[in-house]
Every structure is written in structure tokens, then in C-alpha cells.
Specification:
By secondary structure, the chain is of the alpha/beta class. It is about 25% helix and about 35% strand. The protein folds into two domains: about 60 residues, 2,3-Dihydroxybiphenyl 1,2-Dioxygenase, domain 1 (Roll); about 70 residues, 2,3-Dihydroxybiphenyl 1,2-Dioxygenase, domain 1. The chain contains four helices and eight strands; from the N terminus they run βαβββαβαβββα. A four-stranded mixed beta sheet has the order 1-4-3-2. The protein has a four-stranded mixed beta sheet with strand order 5-8-7-6. The longest helix is centred in the middle third of the chain and has 13 residues. The radius of gyration is 16 Å and the shape is globular. The two termini are about 25 Å apart.
């Protein structure tokens, strides 16, 4: 059985700034699927974020593009290996231009924090104790 993938398409104001932001978080750009209108950000083997300039993004939909500085369009949640990895990624995002958002969620068996990227898209980073998942 093949492994299912997810491609998240996000409109961005400044493609070069967004590429710098996501590579600053440790992700890579796949040049095969990137050009002056789009950048393919590889999060993992099964998760890819397509950063699209707003005019290019608009060619894929008849709907208006949300102003993510004032409107929530989606909450993207990524898992992390540990509580420390949650803090490392969110702290790094804030350090390179992201904005802390929401409250830290600490339920003991689950821990999460969130940031908004340069365009206001919200990224939640979450760790869950594997024993709690099995249990």
C-alpha cells in the first residue's frame, strides 16, 4: 500500500521571504517543483507545503483569498518528537520573524504551542506522549 501524502497550498505575499523563513526552520525547498511563482517546501516524506504567490494561488480558486492577518483560514498542526522540539521550533519561528499566537497547551500527556508565519498562517506544533496514544 502506498503512503498517502498531503500538499498544503498557501498564498504568500513575498515568496522569497517565505522561502527564507521556512528554510530557517530547517525545511528544504524542492527546486523541481519551485519557480518564481511557487516554492515546494518539504516538511517530511509525506508533507509538502506549496507556497504560492497570491496571483498564482488565485488561478486555482474562484474564491477570494483570506486576509490571514485578520481572518483564520486554516490551523495547520505538525507533530514534534518531544516537548523540547515543540519549544525549539516555535522559538526559532518567532526568532526569524514569526509571531507567537494562542496559549501554550500543557495537559501533561500533550503539549503544544503555535506561531503565525510571515503571512499570518497559523502553525500549531504538538507533542503527545506515545504511551497516551497507545493507551
Amino acid at each position: 500500500m502506498s503512503q498517502q501524502m498531503i500538499f498544503v497550498n498557501l498564498p504568500v505575499n513575498d515568496l522569497e521571504a517565505s522561502k527564507k523563513f521556512f528554510t530557517g526552520l530547517g525545511y528544504t525547498i524542492n527546486p523541481q517543483f519551485s519557480d518564481e511563482k511557487a516554492a515546494s517546501v518539504v516538511i517530511s516524506d509525506t508533507i509538502v507545503v506549496m507556497l504560492l504567490t497570491k496571483p498564482f494561488y488565485a488561478t486555482f480558486t474562484d474564491k477570494g483569498i483570506a486576509d490571514t492577518k485578520t481572518t483564520s483560514e486554516v490551523l495547520i498542526c505538525l507533530s514534534a518528537e518531544s516537548r523540547d522540539k515543540v519549544d525549539e521550533l516555535v522559538d526559532r519561528a518567532i526568532e526569524i520573524g514569526g509571531t507567537a499566537t494562542g496559549k501554550t497547551q500543557d495537559m501533561g500527556f500533550m503539549y503544544g504551542r503555535a506561531f503565525d508565519d510571515l503571512d499570518g498562517h497559523t502553525w500549531e506544533i504538538m507533542w503527545m506522549d506515545p504511551a497516551a496514544v497507545q493507551g
